[in-house]
Write a structure and sequence with these properties.
Blueprint: E1 10-14, H1 26-29, H2 34-46, E2 52-56, H3 60-73, E3 76-80, H4 89-96, E4 103-107, E5 129-132, H5 137-150
Parallel strand pairs: 1-2, 1-3, 3-4, 4-5
Helix pairs in contact: 2-5, 3-4
The structure holds 1,3,4-trihydroxy-5-OXO-cyclohexanecarboxylic acid.
């Protein structure tokens, strides 16, 4: 069965410390909580007839296991890898194993206006799109993009 937006959820993955959104450095990340972002993503996907599978982990291996799951069961991935963006070849390798699966990377803050170590992302090497500095609205943009890319049947699925 081909996996499309209509037949499979979008996997939305959040990396370490994003469970603290709303409390953690609100001057950088804003007042919204992860629950607020989940609701925003669900509303955005629903407008296109889709659903989301929204998860957060502070553990690299768990994120990798979930990418493997998305490879088989989801129509695309939105990922905010948080600090793992800048360190994790393993997450890049997991995404590289997802042939043809739409992947959009999102960062709440404008990482390019911050410390130099945040300017490079391993995940960007695989991402079909990258959104940074749009606040939590970036998640809605990312869901829109995955919905557009996953709207048609995947030939290899
Ligand atoms: C972040 C940016 C990362 O550099 C940082 O480590 C995060 C959040 C963002 O959403 O702006 O935890 O991914």
């Amino acid at each position: 069965m081909p996996r499309t937006l209509a037949s499979a959820p979008i996997m939305i993955l959040n990396g370490p410390n994003l469970n603290l959104l709303g409390q953690r450095q609100p001057e950088i990340y804003g007042p919204d909580t992860l629950a607020d972002i989940e609701a925003l993503c669900a509303r955005t996907a629903a407008a296109h007839g889709g659903t989301v599978d929204f998860r957060q982990s502070n553990h690299e291996g768990e994120l990798i296991d979930w990418i493997h799951e998305a490879r088989l069961h989801h129509c695309g991935v939105v990922i905010n890898p948080a600090a793992y963006s800048h360190t994790s070849v393993a997450i890049l390798d997991a995404l590289n194993a997802c042939d043809g699966l739409p992947v959009v990377e999102v960062h709440i803050s404008n990482v390019h206006r911050r410390e130099t170590f945040r300017h490079h992302s391993y995940v960007s090497l695989r991402a079909d799109g990258v959104i940074a500095g749009c606040g939590v609205q970036g998640y809605a943009f990312a869901v829109e993009r995955v919905a557009a890319l996953a709207g048609a049947a995947r030939a290899d699925a």
